[in-house]
Amino acid sequence: MIWDSTDTWIVVIGVLAGISSALLGSYLLLRRMSLMGDAISHAVLPGLAIAFLVTLSRDSVSMFIGAAILGVLTAIVTQILHRNGKVEENASLGVVFTTLFALGLILISLFANKVHLDASCVLYGNIVLSTLDQVSVWGWMVPRAAVVLFIVLLIDIAAIAILFKELRITSFDPAMADTVGFNPWICQYILMSLVAVTAVAAFEVVGSILVVAMIIVPPATAYLLTDRLLVMLVLSVVFGALAAGFGHVAAITVPIWFGFEDTETAGMMAVLAGIFFLLALLGAPRYGILGRLVYRVSLSLRIAREDVLGFLYRAEELRSDQAHSWQAGSIGQAVGISPSLARIALVGLHRAGQIVRHDRSWSLTNQGRNRAASLVRSHRLWETYLAKHFDLPLDHVHRAAMDLEHVTDASMQVALSREVNNPSIDPHGKPMPEAKDQENDPQ
Amino acid sequence: MTTDRIIKQTWLFMMMVVMLVAAPLFAGEVEIQENISFVDQLLRTLSLRDYNTRLVLTGTTLLGLASGVMGTYMLLRRRSLIGDALGHATFPGIALAFMIMVAFGGEGKSLPGLLIGAAVTGLLGVGAVVFIRHWTRLKEDAALGIVLSVWFGIGVALMGLVQSMPGADAAGLESFIYGKTASMVQSDAILIAGAAVTVVIVCTLLFKEFAILSFDVDLARTQGWPLVKIDLIMMLLVTLVVVVGLQAVGLILVVALLIIPAVAARFWTQRLYLMIWIAALIGALSGLVGAGITNLFAGLPAGAVIVLTGSSIFLISLIFGSYRGLVVLLTRRVRLNRRVRYQHLLRALWEAGELKQRASQSQDCITLKWLLQQRAWSQRSLQRLLKSAQRKDLLLFDPNKETVRLTKSGEIEASRVVRNHRLWELYLIHYADIAPSHVDRDADSVEHVIGTDLVRELESAIADAGDVLRPPPSPHKLGVQS
Question: Yes or no: is domain B3-324 CATH 1.10.3470.10?
Fold first, then answer.
């Protein structure tokens, strides 16, 4: 890997673009308007072409004005079509942005000799070339793109800082914003023009697709990790910046491992953003797939353990004069779980000291018996409650109580017992186990 | 939908397809002339004299037709933008297929191979959208956006690799992004025709299945339809359209072909069968006219022109559409407003008569001044309204004395309106437990839209309903409360 100042500038430019896009994208995501980012970054094309035609120069300011106008126009026309034309929202967005994009392509090809704008440059951008066009800032030679992106970033940050409260309320609860006297549409249009300006500043360099990736993917990654707006903004900025930085590193290293030369930095930046998203999708603590799988597995294990305990307790109750001993297979069959799951549950209970092993069979310890009694008490209290309040026939309450007993904690049990007047038998005539002190309760 | 109609529908579609396919394929090449005038060129385009023109027009027309059909289903299933994700998601497949084919010593640009690659990653992209939406708390829009940008990013990165592959000529792969309509060859046209015929046949055979999936998924589920299979077939057809469309108009604009004709068709009808037809027609027309225009003016990007043609048809539909067009909606609203104004006037006059009768005054002289206080109308609008009502023979208005009197036909109409108003008031009082002092305003907006059936029902629900010429007495105090 050869690293020179060009690479540094590429990373700086990418990071700047990533940060601005991710900041605005967070608000778009919360407003469920992520695709607006995609739409606007396509729809600004005619705005750029017209700006070129009017001023006959690649003047940044006129470009930004053209883009901002088109961005807001996209939002407004989409809204009008949706409201007054009764076109479904996504469809109206699709009609508007594809039409504008087509218009832009035609304008560019009609005035190709005047407009020095290549359609493919809009899609891919050209980050390497952009580092060559340098201007002097306080004696330093800095790529023009970096200066422009930095200014745009400052504008974005300033707008978000000033409108933080307004943006938050209109993103989370537009109806409330309306009732407290704040027009949500103003925020909407300010946001849309910011998106348009950012998209234009960025896509000359990194291409519109990367802008879309940076607007949507890092905020989505952050959204899987947190519920707090400020944290989400920070995280999405971090992910945006990391994706941009490592994207370039990946673009010049990864292909070499496979015997190629380097590849498009913009593409790799989007891929990196996608990889971060995939990691969050799998590993996010609360909303990640692995987290949810672990929770699900541990829940079903706990339920299996508790069912086994309850079963052993009921078996004791039935044949209180005999020695009670059971094997894993028969327990599993009786509780309705597979033998292997039953074995796992038994091992867990044994380790917790709630059951003991005699030869090849199992019975409750005192501690286990207390826990089991509490479970069976919850179960029978629920049966009583369901029979009393829901008018369920007696042969229907067992199954519901089987589910409810696992989510009943001590205080709920007390309240439940009070609700059904502390009965001593359940509706089936079985005795209600006494309420033990709950200090052994793992919950 | 009877079997008869299905057969007829198939026939019509098939005839259309066969005619369009047959024309270019059996044509011989015609010599190309240089420096022909615009009029000549127009004539040549219109008469389809050039082999190449015919080919391109056939291809784009059939593509428009097929995407119109599939777009209708996507619109009804609220999946319009899935085409966007699908289109972008095909890109890495093209690059990957190219790399694989080159790696195995092939030339790399075999069209079927590239298109298979495109279809595979496209479908993977759709699968990813479904997965993200199902397994995370992200919404549809974010899922689509993530897939389209990341997949496209992968495609861009892979394209970068392709460029540096030894012995591979990757030039031309980019045509999949922008399309290369003008340089369409016979095999491209045949491919599109095949896709269009497949779409039409499958949609005809599975008309009922697709319809139920589009309108009522829950009903379909409870009735035990194999939803997943039907859905898969539908998505495969959409993928087919997108993939063959890549060649013709490019991946961004094929999205437009999937959305615009369907949305435009929605303004003309609410019947699925008709909507598919209209969407297919609009799609075909966009393809035909768009490609025709491109043929006339050299240098225009054909895909963009086709899309703009579609957009123009959309605009026309938006304004003039016979079912939901703005003109229709506006006329309907103006008519309703006019009727509401007349009915308000008549009711005010009738109630004035009742008040005067109660006070044993002469009923003839209801003054303009009194009427003005009854509603929020200005002097001018009221006078205009009175004059036009007089022309309709509903009342007699004396502009000098500023007095108004109902005619016989006005009285009948007024009593009907008042009766509807009061029936609704009584209904609200009896069945909705609303205080008599609060029902007037509610009934005010409902009285104009109660049909005869509803009036019959109200009559049977309310004991003292009166008859048309003698409405029941008002349940609340009449006149303006001051």
Answer: yes
